[in-house]
Amino acid sequence: MNAKGIHGAALFAVIAGAAVLMTSAPVSADAVSDFYKKSRVKVIIGFPPGGGFNRGGRVVARHIGKYIPGNPKVIAQNMPGGGSLLLMNWLYNKAPKNGTVIGHFHSSAMREAFIGAAGVYFDPRKYYWLGSYLRERAVTFVRADSGIKSIHDVFKKQVIVGATSPRSGGGVYPTILNQVLGTKFKVVVGYGGTGESTLAMERGELQGVGSWSWSQLRDRRPKWLKENFVNVLVSLSVEPHKDLPNVPTPLQLAKTQEDRQVLEAIFAWAELGRPFASPPGTDPARGAALRKAFATMVGNKDFEKDINIASLEVDPVIGKDAEALLAKLYAYPKPVVDRARAVYSEMRRIKIPTAKKNTLGGLKVATVKGKGRKMRITFKDGSGQTWKFKAREKRLNRKTMINGKKGKAGELKKGMLCAVTYYNKGGMVYSADCKG
Questions:
Q1: Helices (H), 246-374
Q2: What stretch of H or E contains 108?
Q3: How would residue 41 be classed by pLDDT, with cut points 50, 70 and 90?
Q4: Among candidate residues 166, 115, 150, 345, the one with its CA nearest the CA of residue 232
Q5: Residues near 8 by Cβ (< 8 Å), separated by ≥ 6?
């Protein structure tokens, strides 16, 4: 090739290279959009239908598709188990990494990995983080007539609070406050949800509830606050909620710097509140599109309106901030981390009493209404008193007997005579043994 030909070839190469650089970003963006136009995105919620996590996850599923390039159809599915540990293990080890899966799980489940709990097969730092629409601000509260006016009274006097399980926030947090600060909470676990423990508190079987989201308490039980039925004792977070500037956090109650750091290592996970992430190794361009879509969505008024309707609120943490918080938590000094793990392990060894279900026979079926999670059953006892219960049909199916044989909740008929188990009148019915 002569000098002129060499010069021409070199010039063509420069022009071609410039063209590639000029077009690479739009082509990449178009490729992401084209992929999502033909794809369906799943938001998988680590809890069963019903409850705040399910409501919030479904609001996100309804909105996020508007901000993902290509506007894919987004559906919500449930994968309950282990307080969302089942989902987190699946998301980390088995979920597709092509940008079509978003997991929604509990922030406290990540702490299980941090403290080295059994059955955890993930590292929270390696998920592709989208963020959280809410920094969790849970609280512990008691009946005002319990004689407990503030958290300082719990250092002197035992108070009985309810929770769903030893691993739930209501089971964990009061027990940890006992160990680190010296409070005198007595936790009773086994209730079938916060609804059951709040009913037990209303009836005087408990003095309070170990943990419930402040926004849920505020929006779902406004009369309790307006009529001073409850006293809020402590904000279970590292920062107080703006509505509760005078309610202390555990960190504010700490007597030493080490106690404060240990409590921060345990309670800081609440800052990640209601988190969303995709699997480790998610396609980078699609992951970036999902992260940007999430950040845009949580700043949108329509999304905030929908979240508020679900009795939740928006106080977001975006993906990069979530990663920074995790890096901070994993960088705590070894003595602090070791003590936090020891506190957590010791808490697990403490025998926590379990609430006992009541059993009542001689109840005659009056009405059976609704299906699924909206089933409602009314009974009448021998004196004519009415007993109303909620039911989750699928769960009740497992423990329904009719004329001595396995039956289904939907087969209960007016006039059947039953023995039922329950925690509280007006709460859930868990089993029915009926004849007729």
A1: 250-253, 257-267, 284-298, 301-309, 319-329, 334-349
A2: helix 107-114
A3: very high
A4: 150
A5: none
Report the distance separating Cα 429 and Cα 379, nearest Å. 11
Domain of residue 283, CATH code: 3.40.190.150
The DSSP-derived string for 213-241 is: EHHHHHHH-HHHHHTT-EEEEEESSSS--
Confidence of residue 5 (pLDDT cuts 50, 70, 90): very low
> Mean per-residue pLDDT for 169-197?
90
8 Å CB contact between 164 and 171: yes
Q: Are 166 and 256 within one domain? A: yes
Residues 250 and 147 in one domain: yes
Q: What's the domain count of the chain?
A: 3
121-125, 237-241, 315-319: which has the minimum mean pLDDT?
237-241
- Could you report the per-residue pLDDT of 317-366, keeping only the tens digit for each? 999 999 999 999 999 888 988 998 888 777 777 777 888 888 999 999 99
CATH of the domain at 385: 2.40.50
**CB-CB neighbours of 12 under 10 Å:** 10
Q: Are residues 56 and 171 both part of a single domain?
A: no
Residue 285 and residue 249 share a domain: no
d(CA 381, CA 71): 56
DSSP run (H or E) holding 139? strand 138-143
The tokens of 426 are what? 């007006």
Strand order across the 101-104 sheet: 73-78, 40-45, 101-104, 275-278, 128-132, 317-318
- Which residues 6+ apart lie within 8 Å of 433 measured at CB? 400, 401, 418, 419, 420
Q: Which residue segment(s) compose the domain that 377 sits in?
A: 358-435
Q: How far apart are CA 394 and CA 391, in angstroms?
A: 9
DSSP labels, 337-364: HHHHHHHHHHHHHS---BPPPEEEEEEE
Measured CA to CA, the distance from residue 376 to residue 384 in angstroms comes to: 19
DSSP 8-state class, residue 185: E
As to burial, measured by CB atoms within 10 angstroms (0-12 exposed, 13-18 middle, 19+ buried), residue 80 is: middle
Q: Find out whether 297 and 67 touch, Cβ atoms under 8 Å.
A: yes
User: Contact, 210 vs 176, CB < 8 A?
Assistant: no
Cross-sheet strand order for the sheet of 405-406: 386-391, 375-380, 358-369, 417-422, 429-435, 400-402, 405-406
Within-domain flag for 321: no
If residue 111 lies in a helix (H) or strand (E), which one and from where to where?
helix 107-114
